[in-house]
Specification:
Layout (H helix, E strand, L loop, with lengths): L1 E2 L4 H11 L7 H6 L3 H21 L3 E4 L6 E5 L13 H5 L6 H16 L6 E7 L5 H17 L3 E6 L5 H6 L2 E8 L6 E7 L2
Helix pairs in contact: 1-3
């Protein structure tokens, strides 16, 4: 289900529920390698980013059990510094600059492989990997939003976990390569419309 604009207290509640469930998500394992800090990092990350996603009319989707978070956002609208509400709490983490490295890399890659004549949003699936049915329901919702709002949809991940299922839904691999000096494989897939 799509989450609409939330008040700060509701964002805090949602962050508190999601954070412990997302500690094994690949993206957060990369962004915060310190497992002991990861849950607090995720809370700060969500509290900082959710208001920005709502302001930019990006899509935030969660399943009914709040086990999976899917973000459909523009890759080109990311700044290179923390600013505004929640920035101080996120900045206190030593690994926080990795966010800008990851976003910058994503913006560069999408510039290279994305179609130029349409708006583009990138779908990121955040889950511990144990909720495949809920993930695919949210992916279907993201695909429907891309048709309804007329934008190209790409999928970005540091894993190959959902590649086969997404190919069945019409996605094709646009880019796949080992990410930086990590053991993660970055995958970009584009929805063929």
């Amino acid at each position: 289900m799509r989450v609409k604009d939330l008040k700060t207290k509701d964002i805090d509640k949602l962050s508190n529920i999601l954070a412990p469930k997302l500690t094994q998500a690949r993206l957060f394992k990369f962004l915060c390698p310190n497992e002991g800090e990861r849950e607090e990092f995720i809370k700060a990350y969500l509290r900082y980013n959710m208001p920005h996603w709502f302001e930019r009319h990006d899509c935030v989707l969660v399943d009914e059990n709040l086990d999976v978070l899917v973000v459909v956002a523009s890759p080109r609208r990311s700044s290179h510094k923390f600013k505004g509400k929640g920035a101080k709490k996120l900045r206190r983490f030593e690994s926080a600059p990795a966010i800008f490295y990851y976003r910058g890399n994503l913006a560069y890659l999408t510039h290279l492989v994305a179609p130029r004549n349409k708006r583009l949003k990138v779908m990121t699936i955040l889950t511990d990997g144990n909720h495949d049915e809920a993930v695919m329901e949210l992916v279907d919702e993201a695909i429907a939003l891309s048709y309804k709002n007329d934008f190209n949809l790409m999928y970005d991940s540091l894993t190959r976990r959902y590649n086969a299922e997404l190919e069945e839904k019409g996605f094709v691999i646009s880019y796949q390569k080992k990410f930086a000096l990590t053991g993660y494989v970055e995958t970009l897939m584009t929805l063929n419309k």
